[in-house]
Design brief:
The protein is built from 11 helices and 9 strands. The chain is of the alpha/beta class. The longest helix has 19 residues. It binds phosphoric acid mono(formamide)ester. The site of phosphoric acid mono(formamide)ester has 9 residues, from helix 2.
Length: about 290
C-alpha cells in the first residue's frame, strides 16, 4: 500500500520522531544512503520555489536518485490534461511525485490516482515538508521536542497550519497570534490568539512568515501590510520570549516588513539552518515513503 504525505497527519508520533533522528544522521553523513538507487522522483512546480526545489533536487541526487523537475508550463496539464491522467502516466515512470500547487484538492486528486507516493511541496492550505525541517531545527537546538512552546506571529496560513498539525504530534505547543480576520481555523489544538506579545511570552521559539503569500490576491497587499504591522518580529518582541528563545522564518523574508534585518541576520535566529534542514528532513521522508 503506497503512502502519501499531504498534510503531515499521515505520520504517527513514533514515525515522526524516527524520521527526525534519521534526518539528523543523514545530515552528518549526506551520502550514507543510496535509498533511491537510480530511481526517478518527479517534482511538479505549479508555483515558484527556491528552497523546495533546491532541497528536493539536491536531496534526491544525494540518495542516488534522479530528480525530474517539471514546471507547469512544460506539462500537458497546462493545456487541459487532467490530474488523473497525469498521475496514471507519471506512476509508470517514477518512484514518487512531489507537487507544489494552489488548491489542496488538486494535490489530493493527484494522490488519489497515483500508484506511487505523493508529497506535498506546498499548497495554499498546507506546507508539511517545511514543518518537518522546522522540527528538525528545534530538535538540534533543544535536544528534544516534548514540552517546547512555539509562538507563530502573523498570517494564519499554510505554514502555521502545518506547524500546528506536525508540532502537536511531537508534543510542541503551538500558539498562533493573528489579526481577527486572518486567524488560523481551529486545528490540531493550536492556541489561537490575537495579541503577538501574549503569544511570545516565555516561548522557546518565535516564528513568522510573509504577510502576502503566493496564494493571496496581490491587490490585498497594501491592506495586509497595514493590518499585520503590529505583528512584525523585532528584537523587542523576541525579548518577551524565553531568554534562550530562537527566531525562525520559513523564507522568503522581507526584511523591514514581517521581520527586522537585526533578527533575520542576528545571533538568535536559526533561519539559515532551518532552510538547510529541508534537504535532510525530506531525504528521511523519501526513504520512509519509498520503502527504502
Ligand atoms: N519555504 C519555502 O517553501 O521556500 P520556497 O517557496 O522558496 O520553496
Amino acid at each position: 500500500m503506497k503512502r502519501d504525505f499531504l498534510t503531515g497527519a499521515e505520520l504517527s508520533r513514533d514515525e515522526l520522531l524516527a524520521l527526525l533522528r534519521r534526518a539528523g544522521k543523514l545530515k552528518s553523513d549526506p551520502y550514507a544512503s543510496s535509498a533511491l538507487g537510480k530511481r526517478t522522483v518527479a517534482l511538479i512546480f505549479r508555483r515558484p520555489s527556491t528552497r523546495t526545489r533546491l532541497s528536493f533536487e539536491a536531496g534526491i541526487a544525494e540518495l542516488g536518485g534522479h530528480p525530474m523537475v517539471l514546471r507547469a508550463d512544460e506539462l500537458q496539464l497546462s493545456r487541459g490534461e487532467s490530474l488523473r491522467d497525469t498521475a496514471y502516466v507519471l506512476s509508470r515512470h517514477v518512484a514518487a511525485i512531489g507537487m507544489r500547487t494552489g488548491p489542496h484538492e488538486q494535490l489530493e486528486e493527484l494522490a488519489e490516482h497515483a500508484s506511487v507516493p505523493v508529497i506535498n511541496m506546498l499548497t495554499a492550505e498546507h506546507h508539511p515538508c517545511q514543518a518537518l525541517a522546522d522540527l528538525l531545527t528545534l530538535w538540534e537546538e533543544f535536544g528534544s521536542l516534548e514540552g517546547l512552546t512555539l509562538a507563530y506571529v502573523g498570517d494564519g496560513n499554510n505554514v502555521a497550519r502545518s506547524l500546528a498539525i506536525v508540532g502537536r504530534l511531537a508534543g510542541v505547543t503551538v500558539r498562533v497570534a493573528s489579526p481577527p480576520d486572518y486567524q488560523l481555523d481551529p486545528v490540531a489544538d493550536a492556541v489561537l490568539l490575537s495579541d503577538p506579545r501574549e503569544a511570545v511570552q516565555d516561548a522557546d521559539i518565535v516564528y513568522t512568515d510573509v504577510w502576502v503569500s503566493m496564494s493571496d490576491d496581490a491587490s490585498t497587499a497594501q491592506e495586509r501590510r497595514r493590518v499585520f504591522a503590529p505583528y512584525w518580529l523585532d528584537d523587542a518582541l523576541l525579548d518577551l520570549a524565553a531568554p534562550h528563545a530562537i527566531a525562525l522564518h520559513c523564507l522568503p523574508a522581507h526584511p523591514g516588513e514581517e521581520i527586522t534585518a537585526e533578527v533575520l541576520y542576528g545571533k538568535r535566529q536559526r533561519i539559515w539552518d532551518q532552510a538547510e534542514n529541508r534537504r535532510h528532513a525530506q531525504k528521511a521522508l523519501l526513504e520512509l515513503l519509498t520503502g527504502a
